[in-house]
Amino acid sequence: MKYENIVEGVFLSRPNRFVAHVLIHGREEIVHVKNTSRCRELLIPGVTVYLEKSGNPRRKTGFSLISVMKAGRLINIDSQAPNKVCGEALAAGTLKLPGLMGDVLRIKPESTFGASRLDFYLESASGGGAILQKAYVEVKGVTLEAEGILRFPDAPTERGLKHILELIKAKEAGYQAYALFLIQMKGAVYFTPNDAMHPEFGAAVRLAKSKGVHLLAYDCHVTRDELILADEVEVRL
Known about the structure:
This protein is of the alpha+beta class and about 240 residues long. The chain contains 3 helices and 15 strands. The protein is about 15% helix and about 45% strand.
């Protein structure tokens, strides 16, 4: 996925989860933060950040903060980006899901299963067009990194826990089910659930694995104005 009208800034502060103060071209601006997670290890006063300038004159904030530099590595923190990246990769056929036979015929974003709305519903088909399999995919963006180890979540997530349990139910109902952790940076060594932050989530992920839910992690190529699915990353439980 690509961004338009990217500018560089210096992060100053984040008074709440929705906005930040950033120095842009020598002027302090109040900007929208496209991630409601804590990101405390990333949004440190003085770090270089990149923002997308809005073309909407009615917006209260003229910029959206989308990425940040950490130790020479550019990390995308746009919480809406992982779904877009995975959607593009599924449509282009560059994201291959293990266990899914045939070609992906249908991709439906934001599809309801049980009591949850999961990120993608898929149907695969044979060469003759007959539906072979149906699947649900839930995508989680990952930005919490330490020494090349990526963890999710960075804060307790009851919604995320609910999604994992719903994937288990989907698998039991005969669907293929996938939890895909999209690492919004390059250079990951491996991914693992953040048990210290939310042990119930980690337990649910391990249960999902035992029930046949596919656990996948991919990193991304990140530039100032682009985020592209890159390489599969090891998942350690």
